[in-house]
Inverse folding.
């Protein structure tokens, strides 16, 4: 990596902050079809290219593990393309879309790792996140004031699940900024309630169930003498309000979706795609079925990050990706403890059980940002 002082390189610093801010702030604006490159993707890739050219490529365990995972995934895709061309005289490159998104997120992750090696101030992410939440809030207020009816709220996204995952990612970022003293406890609680409200409006069970569960841990203040007492009071208050308004809550579609969860067809392991892996032969169980075979067997995308990796890239691919997540979990737990682990890592990991979120770029921003903010958190605690 190049030895560059971003504080001295003022113009470069401003340009990088510009693209990073708007890349995050405009993330809720989906102007093109799902699966297409959106405005924020263009801005973030420009940021990534500039960082990698001016600062260079970082060398740490996350870069090597993610790079190894990408190399392995690329190998699996190339093998199945060659197999189809040579034996079946047929190939469909549309199944390379997953690989292209993974390459994009690898470049973004690598550039963020490189950038945060030199830039220790994270306010630009906070401002971008606040702007993005305001954009979603504007969409809600506009539809509410105009009397526009909707079954599932999407904001400016193309479908409600995208907004659901965005809310999940916002939750983790909000807690992360709170633990690093960028925002107050009251601001954290209020903004978390806003994103939980968004997730409920989407009717995405994976989003609002995971957020409500994690919120129970987030409400415990970490730097207050009587934090356990405050936590217990909050929990008892929530239980009391739930019992008090149970009749009204039980009549809502959000509550009914939770109660009917065991009976819903789209919640079964088969529909989510968990059983696809068992169609693999011995070699495919280790090396993967490949994206095309997964789609051929299941008929559509597997609705699980982990099941998609296991089925598409086998036990080897699953273990490599699992190692990447394992080191992330260890670093977050080391800095923030169990409560921090639940509030930062658990929301997106729980969501990933029933939705494929590996190509969602905000997740990778959380991934890198949490790693570097945890390092800063540990350094500050050692000084004090």
């Amino acid at each position: 990596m190049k030895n560059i002082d971003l504080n001295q390189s003022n113009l470069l610093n401003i340009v990088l902050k510009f693209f990073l801010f708007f890349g995050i702030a405009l993330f809720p604006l989906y102007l093109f079809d799902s699966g297409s490159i959106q405005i924020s993707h263009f801005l973030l890739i420009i940021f990534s290219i500039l960082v990698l050219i001016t600062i260079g490529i970082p060398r740490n365990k996350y870069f090597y593990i993610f790079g190894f995972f990408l190399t392995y995934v690329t190998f699996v895709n190339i093998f199945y393309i060659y197999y189809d061309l040579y034996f079946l005289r047929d190939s469909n490159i549309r199944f390379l879309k997953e690989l292209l998104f993974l390459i994009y997120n690898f470049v973004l992750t690598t550039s963020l790792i490189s950038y945060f090696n030199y830039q220790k101030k994270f306010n630009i992410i906070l401002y971008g996140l606040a702007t993005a939440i305001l954009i979603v809030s504007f969409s809600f207020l506009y539809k509410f004031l105009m009397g526009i009816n909707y079954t599932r709220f999407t904001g400016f996204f193309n479908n409600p699940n995208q907004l659901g995952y965005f809310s999940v990612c916002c939750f983790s970022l909000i807690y992360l900024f709170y633990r690093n003293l960028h925002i107050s406890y009251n601001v954290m609680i209020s903004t978390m309630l806003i994103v939980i409200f968004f997730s409920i409006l989407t009717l995405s069970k994976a989003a609002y169930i995971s957020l409500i569960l994690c919120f129970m841990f987030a409400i415990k203040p970490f730097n207050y003498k009587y934090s356990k007492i405050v936590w217990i009071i909050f929990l008892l208050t929530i239980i009391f309000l739930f019992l008090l308004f149970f009749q009204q809550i039980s009549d809502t579609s959000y509550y009914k979706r939770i109660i009917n969860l065991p009976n819903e067809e789209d919640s079964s392991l088969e529909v989510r795609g968990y059983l696809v892996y068992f169609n693999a032969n011995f070699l495919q169980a280790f090396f993967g079925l490949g994206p095309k075979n997964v789609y051929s067997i299941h008929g559509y995308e597997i609705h699980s990050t982990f099941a998609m990796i296991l089925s598409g890239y086998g036990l080897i691919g699953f273990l490599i990706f699992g190692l990447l997540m394992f080191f992330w979990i260890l670093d977050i737990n080391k800095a923030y403890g169990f409560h921090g682990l639940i509030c930062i890592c658990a929301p997106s990991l729980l969501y990933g059980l029933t939705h494929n979120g590996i190509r969602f770029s905000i997740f990778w921003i959380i991934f890198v940002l949490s790693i570097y903010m945890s390092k800063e958190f540990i350094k500050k605690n050692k000084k004090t």
Observations:
- Residues 10-218+268-383 form one domain.
- Residues 305-344 form the longest helix (40 residues).
- The chain has a mean pLDDT of 88.
